[in-house]
Amino acid sequence: MDEPVPDDDHRTVDEHRTVDDPSPDPAAVDRHAGDAHAYPFGESFEDLDGLEHLAEQEGIGGLKVAAELIEDELRAKSVTRRLVELAVSLGITAFIFVRLIPQFFDLEYADVWTRLSTINPGLLLFLVAFWMFTMWCYAGVLAATLPHLLRVQAMVLNFSGSALANIVPFGGAAGVGATYAQAMSWGFDAPSITLSIIVTGVWNVFAKLGMPILVLVALVITGESTKGLGIAAFVGFAILVAAVTGLALVFKSEGLARSVGGGLQRTMNAGRRLLRRPATDRLTTRVMEFRHRTVGLVRSRWLRITVWMVLYKTSQALLSLLCARAVGLDGVTSIQIFAVYTFGELLSTIPFTPSGVGFVEAGSAQLLVTFGASADAAVAAVALYRAFTYLFEIPLGGVGWLTWATRRSWRRPPGSRAAEPAS
User: Fold this and answer.
1) How many CB atoms lie under 10 A from the CB of residue 77?
2) What residues form DSSP beta bridges with 412?
3) The pLDDT of residue 337 is above 80
4) Residue 387 is part of which domain span?
5) Taking residues 272-288, what's their average pLDDT?
């Protein structure tokens, strides 16, 4: 799963930051950097109780940062609102799986299980191995954005954060907190971790914009699309080109970055005037802050980050195709299955349930049926794919946390890697 980000709430936390800001509060994560060597991450411990004692007694920097991020998220909403949101999320999920899917598709889950049970054990093992390969590719993205991060450490980061994001009501903030706690324990400083989160998030957005456009274009070329989809592909391509061009200009020079920020600010303020809301003067400053924070890493590693992100998204699309074929889904072309994958990626951003669970399954299965698949095969294909990309990440997250807690050889004082030159 992609690197988690804090939940959207659109409420002001302080005068410079809102909860929907894609980056964590720099003040909250950087203020411990000066005390990095005060926290004895290099000390050993015998078991999980020892780790807990060390965290409580010594005030480990990474865990303190994680706790503060989660506290900020919790303070943004009342306990009552949290409980209501949790109840609504569980209710929506239960309704989709218990009532909506069986009734809408006119099937019994026994029919879906029959499809899944026919998968050859050897093929199932291959699917597991291929899924692990997709996770290895995403670990490449994380390693590219955080120089000197080991690939296996990146896997631990990904699974640990994803597990929290998949099950915890405020999973976005908890996942980000987990990233800080673990990466700081391995010697990285807070600014470097923040930079990695920001850049990874930007590349994930570009990937989610780009994949649907490519698939729509392929559908148009092969004659499997409608006029409406062709127009959508053209509009989406224009948006993506504008976004990439804007990012390139931001990194080209400070003057161009200021011009881009000013243009965005004028456009946004025009919209705010229509809505009778006060103008903002922070957007240009935010663009400049983003440039100063990310320009070095992006200039030196943009190609490496892009290659690994493309490999990750492509391998995930192939996994969805393999899952569809494994359950015997036919009558749907490979490109159409890729279209379903990209549609599911967009549905996963729905905030009402963790990672869009329920919405992804129902929406993806319906699109497969629209393309000509039988209902039981469509639901089985989506269920198998989501088992890999959502369900299996939860227990592996537990493995990730155990690995982090017990792998003493990885421990370094926070900030001890900061002076090392990026490779």
Assistant:
1) 18
2) 186
3) yes
4) 22-410
5) 64
CB 229 within 8 A of CB 216: yes
SS (H, E, C) 345-414: HHHCCCCCCHHHCCHHHHHHHHHHHHHCCCHHHHHHHHHHHHHHHHHCHHHHHHHHHHHHHHCHHHCECC
* Residue 404 located in a structural domain: yes
Tell me what pLDDT residue 31 has.
Answer: 41
Angle, helices 393-406 vs 151-167, to 10°: value is 130
Indicate the burial class of 388 (C-beta count within 10 angstroms; 0-12, 13-18, 19 or more): buried
Identify the band that residue 240 occupies on the pLDDT scale cut at 50, 70 and 90: low
Q: What is the pLDDT of residue 52?
A: 47
Residue 210 amino acid letter? G
And the tokens for 28? Answer: 């909250």
Letter for the amino acid at 305?
I
Q: Which residues pair with 12 in a beta bridge?
A: 18
Q: Is residue 7 one of the residues assigned to a domain?
A: no
**SS3 call for 18:** strand
Domain membership flag for residue 17: no
Contact between 212 and 342 (Cβ < 8 Å): yes
**Is residue 288 over pLDDT 50?**
yes
Written as six digits, the tokens of 205 are 């957005």
C-alpha 258: how far from chain center: 29
Instruction: Summarize pLDDT for 317-330 with one digit per residue, the tens.
Output: 999 999 999 999 98
Dihedral (Cα; 330, 333, 337, 343), 10-degree rounding: -130
Mean pLDDT value across the chain: 74
Query: Has residue 206 been placed in a domain?
Result: yes
Query: What local confidence, expressed as pLDDT, does residue 39 receive?
Result: 35
Which residue shows structure tokens 């324990």?
Answer: 185
Strand partners, 186: 412
Q: Give the CA distances from residue 223 to residues 227, 286, 335, in Å, rounded to whole numbers and listed in that order.
A: 10, 43, 11
Nearest to 134 by CA among 385, 327, 335, 383: 385
Number of helices followed by number of strands (H, E) in the chain: 17, 2
- Residue 235: both structure tokens together: 């509009």
- Count how many domains the chain has: 1
